Amino acid sequence: MENLKITFNLSRPIILNRYFTIDSFLLAIWFDKIKKERNITGFINTKDYLDEISNFIKVINNTISGSIWYISHDNPIAYFNNSIFKKTDVDFFRKLNLGKKIETNRGHFKEYFLKYNAIVTKSIYFYIAGDKNVIESLLRGIGNLFIGKKNVIGFGEIKDYSIEIIETDKSFVLNDSTPAKPLSCKYWNIKSHKLMFYREYPPYWEKSDKTLCYMPTTSLVETMDKSYDKGFKSVLNTDFISPSEFAYEYFNKEKISYNYNDDGDCALCGNKKGRRITKEIFEKVYRKDFTDYPFLSGSGFVCDACIWSLTQLAKTAAEGSIVEHNKITYFWGDKTGIEKKERKLYVAKILSNLSDLKPPFLILFRHKRQNQHYIFKGTVSISTALIPIQFGDDTLIVDNEILIDAIKDLNILIHDKKIQKGIILSGRGYDKYSQEFYKKYDATIMQILNFIVY
Predict the structure, then answer these.
(1) Which residues is 395 bridged to in the sheet?
(2) Helix, strand, or coil (residue 250)
(3) How many CB atoms lie within 10 A of CB 275?
(4) Residues 404 and 387 sit within 8 Å (Cβ to Cβ)
(5) Are strands 361-365 and 386-391 parallel, antiparallel or unpaired?
(6) CB atoms within 10 A of CB 100
(7) Which of 259, 258, 361 is nearest to 310 (CA)?
(8) In whole angstroms, what is the distance from residue 127 CA to residue 174 CA?
(9) 5 with 115: CB under 8 angstroms?
(10) How many whole angstroms separate alpha carbon 171 and alpha carbon 129?
C-alpha cells in the first residue's frame, strides 16, 4: 500500500459536500463494477466487503482510508450561487382535460425551487492509502469523470487528474487532533470536541447506522483542529439520537401511537423504532404537501416521531427553536417575544454565543413557509465545537471554532481593509484578503455570518 495524493483538475464549478471523501468516490465506481460482474441487485452494505476492499485500499481500525477534499493555498476560488425554479401552470393543463390528476408535489408536474452553492476553483485534492495501480484503473475505467452533485447539468466535470506517492499517510488524520475524514469514536481516540452523528462507511448519505464520529474541520485548506483546549463541550458516550424523537419529547404533549408492526430503521431519521406503513397510509398521514418520497425508497419503515414531525402542529411549534434537555429557546419569529425591529440583533446574539449551549441540543430554523419537512432532516448536536443547524431543507454544519475566528476576521476586512460585507459574503471578492478568507471559511460559515455581522 502506498500513501497517495490525488489531484483533480476541474473544468467546471463543483457542488460538493464538505465531508465528501475520496473512498466514497472510488468505492462507488468499484461497487458499480462488481454489481455488474456478479449480477448483484439492491443495496450493498460496505461493511460486508471490508476484506475485499482492504486488498486495494488501506483499512485500519475498521476504517477505510480516504480523506475529505482540500484546496491548496495558491489556488484561486470563488462561490457561484445558482437557482433553478419550476412552476406548473395548473389551470392550463386542467383545461386540456388530459384525463390525469395534476399533482404539483411529485411526478412530471412537480414544482420546485432549487438553489445550488457551487465552488469555482482550478483543482481539489484528496489523500488515500492504497494500491496506486488499482486506483488508477478504477479512474480510467469510467470514461468522462465527474465529481459531486448535479453532473447531468454540467457541474463537477474533471479535466484531468494526477496521482502522486507521498511520504506521510494523511488519509485518516492530519495530526493527533485533526481527523482527515469522519472517524468512529468506537475505534478512534482523537483530541477533538468536533463530534457528530455520521455514518462510518459509505454511502454517507444513507440515514441508517449513524454513529458518533470525530469530524474534520470545515476549512477548505488543511487546518489543524484546536478545539480540545478552547473550552468547548461535547458528549462522547451516547447512542444515536433521532432529531424527530428529540423534538417529539419536548413539543408533543400527547404522544401519538400508530399501531403498525414489523420494526425496522426509520427511512426518514434513521431511528431503530420504525414501523411498516403502506403507501395509502403515507398519503393520508403526510397530506398533500409531502414531497420527500425519495427518502422512502430504501425502506418501508417510519417512526412515530417522524409521522408527528410532519403535522402542521409540529412544524409550527418547532420553527426557530433551540431544543435542549431542560428548555426550549425561540430565536426566530413571533414566539421570541422580541419586537420585529430588534429580532436581527437577537438572532445575531444567539448565533454568536452557540458555545453557551449544553449538548445534546437541536437547532431548527424554518426560515421560509415552504420548508415543510425540516424536523426529520435535522441532526442533534453533541458538541458546541461542531453544530448542525437545520436551516429549512438544508443542514448547515457550523464549525464553531472556525466561526469565532471568522467573526473577528470579517470585522477586520470590513473596518480595517474597507471591503464591503456584501462583496465578501457573496463569494465574489478577488482581492488577496477575500481569497484568503474563502479558503479558511466555507460557504456555511459565510451564510451564518450574514446573520451575525452588520
Answers:
(1) 390
(2) helix
(3) 20
(4) no
(5) parallel
(6) 10
(7) 258
(8) 10
(9) no
(10) 7
Q: Which three three-digit cell numbers place residue 92?
A: 392550463
E strands, 41-101, in order: 59-60, 63-64, 77-86
Q: How many CA atoms lie within 13 A of 105 on its CB side?
A: 12
Whether the bond between 360 and the residue before it is cis, its omega within 30 degrees of 0, is yes
Residues paired with residue 322 on neighbouring β-strands, in sequence order = 329, 363
268 grid coordinates: 426518514
What single DSSP character describes residue 177?
A: T
Instruction: Measure the CA–CA gap between 121 and 115, rounded to whole angstroms.
Output: 19
* Cis peptide preceding 202, ω within 30 of 0: no
Tell me the chain's radius of gyration from C-alpha atoms.
23
* Residue with the three cell numbers 484528496: 126
Q: For residues 244 and 268, is the Cβ–Cβ distance under 8 A?
A: yes
Instruction: Render pLDDT for 213-267 as a digit per residue (tens, 0 to 9).
Output: 999 999 999 999 999 999 999 998 888 988 988 988 888 755 555 544 556 778 8
Question: Are 36 and 164 within 8 A, CB to CB?
Answer: no
CA–CA distance, 322 with 319 (Å, rounded to integer): 9
C-alpha 269/C-alpha 53 separation (Å) is 28
Give pLDDT tens digits for 301-340.
Answer: 788 888 888 777 787 888 889 998 778 899 888 888 888 8
| 384 contacts: CB under 8 Å, gap ≥ 6 | 193, 232, 233, 234, 354, 355, 356, 357, 359, 400
Strands 123-130 vs 2-10: parallel, antiparallel or unpaired: antiparallel
Count of beta carbons in the 10 Å neighbourhood of residue 430 = 10
The bridge status of strand 361-365 relative to strand 2-10 is: unpaired
d(CA 453, CA 352): 9
Nearest to 209 by CA among 182, 230, 188: 182
